[in-house]
Amino acid sequence: AQKIIIDTDPGQDDAVAILLALASPELEILGLTAVAGNVSLKFTEKNALKICELAGKTDIKVFSGAVRPLVRPLVTAEYVHGKTGLDGPDLPEPKMKLQEKHAVDFIVETLMKEEAGTVTLCPLGPLTNIALALIREPKIAGRIKEIVLMGGGFFEGGNITPTSEFNIYVDPHAADVVFRSGAPIVMMPLDVTHKALTSARRVEKFRTMGTRAGTATAQMLDFYERFDVEKYGTDGGPLHDPCVIAYLLKPELFKGRQCNVAVETGSELTMGMTVVDWWAVTEREKNAMVMRDIDHDGFFDLLIERIGRL
Ligand code: BDR
Ligand code: CA
Question: Any idea where the Inosine/uridine-preferring nucleoside hydrolase domain is (predicted)?
Fold first, then answer.
């Protein structure tokens, strides 16, 4: 199985991504690392535990990470995800405990211990933990198989400011460290995720599964899409983070190209913008596989089939 670490700020769409990974035998989850983002760390770490318990996977190791971005004050999104970050279903208080070790230590130690080129990082939130790991032990950059991340946007623009996507905006300095690290990167920007919509017909398929995971998924999506449906006027909201896990399972669902990506950290107006050189108009080194298209029916078929297994 492909070894992965999921770095996350759950978040309903993070939760669905974690469920997809937990349901997939092709993936071996070495650990979940929580980061502050959609809500504060005390909620994201607890939500990560809740999701493992929902899936009946109580042996997964969950680590707590950075409480705030490297430089800027934390910006959260309770208006999207609710006060707990996981509003919608009524999930019990977790019995599972967090690991003692700090998430950043776990990431560094795992990458140094496992054979080089065998561990994939899956960041689904602000890149603070990943940047801290790269700063703590720069040798990990050459040992990471791939960083497959949800973040950024280019032709599609931003969702938190006109130019910037939430995960990159919240910690642009961390994103800058990651995109300059030299590690192989696959980027799932809004250009992809805005094509993966949780339409009523799709959510119904989770609701009628007759399992706890299916029902909770439908309740999470109902809650989480209400804000975006109003904002974008679409049938359903974009299901961002599961695109990362789907890529590991079925890369053929996505299309993109190798580009240079640079992150704006200087201008308040465009802070956190991912400047993607899609047309290769500069000599800047290509540092990321930037996705632009998704087979959204194939994506939801995969998601429904896998979550149905839980
Ligand atoms: C990203 O921001 C969060 O609200 C979601 O969980 C996703 O990771 C989308 O911009
Ligand atoms: Ca997220």
Answer: 4-301
What is the residue-averaged pLDDT of the chain? 97
Give dist(CA 157, CA 42) in Å, integer.
30
Protein residues with CB under 6 Å of any ligand 1 atom = 11, 13-14, 38, 77, 80, 124-125, 150, 159, 165-167, 240-241
Measured CA to CA in angstroms, residue 85 lies from 15, 44, 224 at distances of: 10, 7, 9
Are 34 and 94 a contacting pair, CB within 8 Å? no
Q: How far is the CA of 189 from the centre of ligand 2 (A)?
A: 12
Mutation to probe ligand 1, out of 44, 124, 163, 198 (largest number of atoms < 8 A from CB): 124
Q: Which of 102, 173, 194, 240 is catalytic?
A: 240
Cis peptide before 298 (omega within 30 of 0): no
Query: Would you place residue 241 in the very low, low, confident or very high pLDDT band (cuts 50, 70, 90)?
Result: very high
Question: Percent of the chain having pLDDT more than 90?
Answer: 96
- What kind and span of H or E run contains 148? strand 144-150
Cβ burial, residue 33 (10 Å; 0-12/13-18/19+): buried
3-state secondary structure of 266: coil
Supply the pTM of this predicted model: 0.98
How do residues 150-205 score in pLDDT, each as one tens digit? 999 999 999 999 999 999 999 999 999 999 999 999 999 999 999 999 999 999 99
Pocket test for ligand 1, best of 195, 240, 273 (most atoms within 8 A of CB): 240
Structural contact between residues 178 and 280, judged by C-beta atoms closer than 8 angstroms: no
Give residue 13 CA to ligand 1 midpoint distance, Å. 7
According to DSSP, the residues that pair with 63 across neighbouring strands are 33
